[in-house]
Batch of 2 targets.
Target 1
Amino acid sequence: MVEVKAIDLEKKFGDFQAVYKSSLSVREGEILTLLGPSGSGKSTILRMIAGLIFPTAGKIFFDDRDVTFIPSQQRNTALVFQNYALFPHMSVAKNVEYGLVIRKVPKEERKKRVKEALKLVKMEQFMDRMPNKLSGGQQQRVALARALVVNPDVLLLDEPLSNLDAKLRVETRQEIRELVKSLNLTAIFVTHDQSEALAISDKIAVMEIGFIRQIGTPSEIWEYPETAFVGSFIGDANMIEMTVQNVKNNEYVLLSLATETESPPLKSTYFRGIEKVGNIARVVIRPDKVRITTQSADATNYITGIVKSVQFFGRYNLVLVELTEKHDITVYDSSMLALKKGETVYLNISPQDVKAFGPSNY
Ligand SMILES: Nc1ncnc2c1ncn2[C@@H]1O[C@H](COP(=O)(O)OP(=O)(O)OP(=O)(O)O)[C@@H](O)[C@H]1O
Ligand SMILES: [Mg+2]
């Protein structure tokens, strides 16, 4: 197995820059996930690491070997796509065997390895089936076996679960994680689903318009977002714009919804890139970090709003609160207050849960 390192990778397609200076590293036994919205450059980075396309600038290393311009066949990577891409006219076993035939592995060994690979993904009993007689989840397992059978150094997975239903996705991602760990593979996983990324990854690289905005463990990304985009892309989050009223060195900032306001300012002790009074901050507030009260006497570090709707969600009520004409905020109220539409409420938020980002960290 190898450590994959990408250093200052860039990719242009003609005039269009799909990936800007991006660096990452993945050790053996580790899953790094490229997470970001559609078009953010995830597949482009993956395809450069696979050797299917070459970067415009930057370098890729597998351990100390510079593979930047080494063609795909000489890299020992295996790629699994979203649309399983099994050969329809070949049985499951033949599909899995294909990569070994190409690599001129002797027949006896091929049989053995196909069996092992199918066993890994729990598809042994389907060896002789044709792909069109398998469910989506089963087809994706075969695709995985086909990738694993060649003993790749690096396993690359491009949205491999997106065609599966919700329950199967959860199961399959756990299986993929266990496989990577037990085979000590180096894996890069692509998804635009943040909950999938949180569940499967050792490290997440969050991408936006061709940039890797932040790399960290799932909990680092969750707790300590460096930009408003990262904070709002991971987990359910409100993002509202507020004006900076006061900046107290590295201690706290005070924010308000408008430049002139009657309610007291909201204090934030988690802020990035806020330089001065008057800056517009993008403020990320998670719905479960807000405590609703109906009396101002019970309120600390709060903003006021008016209840627009209350929906029962089982473990909590989803409360939509209007802050201003332009701003609504969603709150998960687990204390299940009996709130009425039109009622004034106080939304209490601990200063460290008011995550504020200035222009350089949008
Ligand atoms: N061969 C190409 N020629 C021109 N532009 C391309 C090419 N491949 C990708 N792009 C562009 O580069 C950008 C990044 O594409 P990429 O496929 O990496 O996005 P992605 O993050 O994988 O998105 P998705 O989640 O939709 O798969 C997109 O704007 C895309 O249109
Ligand atoms: Mg893609």
Target 2
Amino acid sequence: MTVWHDLVGQADVVDSLQASVTAADAALHGELTAGMTHAWLFTGPPGSGRSNAARAFAAALLCEQGGCGSCLACRTALAGSHADVTRVVTDQPVIRVDAIRELVRHAALAPAGNRWQLMIVEDADRLTDSATDALLKSIEEPPPRTVWLLCAPTVEDVAPTIRSRCRSLVLRTPPTAAVAAYLTERDNVPAPVAAFAARASQGHIGRARALALNEASRNRRREVLRVPGQLKDLGSCLTCAANLMEAATEEAQPRVEALDAEELRDLETVYGAGTRGVKSTGFAAAAKELQKNQKQRAKRFVRDAIDRSLLDLASYYRDVVAVQLGSRAELVNEELRHDVATMARGTSAETSTRRLAEIFATREALEGEISPLLALEALMISLRGLEHE
Ligand SMILES: [Zn+2]
């Protein structure tokens, strides 16, 4: 299994990365080629695998065989523990200049091994202006064996000064059949479950795996898809909103708790707490700062989970529109075709389209400071109201 194995439905991207790996190898052996670029930008919709692509490319550049997938270089690069791969991953809304300065300093050094060193910035869309400036200098005059790999949802999300100096690779939403085949092959998921998960995830690989492997995820999704049929009166709207909120909190919790505990342990190690029984100076302040960041992250995880629910909800109304417009294509929620068809007969395509618009407006509003519960309540009420106009 080569390093490209986890890039589902991205044959074109894999081809051009592989060609670049060959060119890079030639460059390492002293043959100057135009094929090597020192800054890359991986873009693609969420779940299409842009950070996987960056990691696979890093592994292939570090592998003596161009990405065999099994040597030590490949395995450590893919796992994120290779000495010549440095990653900036953030769960904060922005990447600040100090993080990038540190990275740029590191980038100026020679690689530990005899090949390349890769600097991966997974959320290049979150760079602050000063972080962008700091990064730009290193990208403009890259150290000879340093390669920058930036990832972002779209090219437009990255500052023009940066993106104009990067070679751009665009990942597409992987086709349903490719996702289903991947689930079956990689995780031994039975074909019908794989087909369902691939459809329901709408090409988001991580989401597809969660739906295929995790019964709780499937149950939560089923609950979300019951919502359209439950919005009878004000009371049921509020109940649905509360249920969605609760499900999102429940979904976020295990990851939040695991990450919080791990970070606190790390902090205690850094400050020597536990070993000497006393916490050294600075611990209290650092712990307070950590707590603040963790609280923010917990909030965002809940919002992310709500966003996934809203996408599921939108898929339902989109199916309704598809039926209303006479489409014969497979529905995202094929297993609910009967309910979808009933709703399609009882409402107009215009109503369904307006409901979709309401859902997308709510998703956008949730990126701001609005209370998620209030936003969900308002959405449920307007989804119901549209039927009774
Ligand atoms: Zn290898």
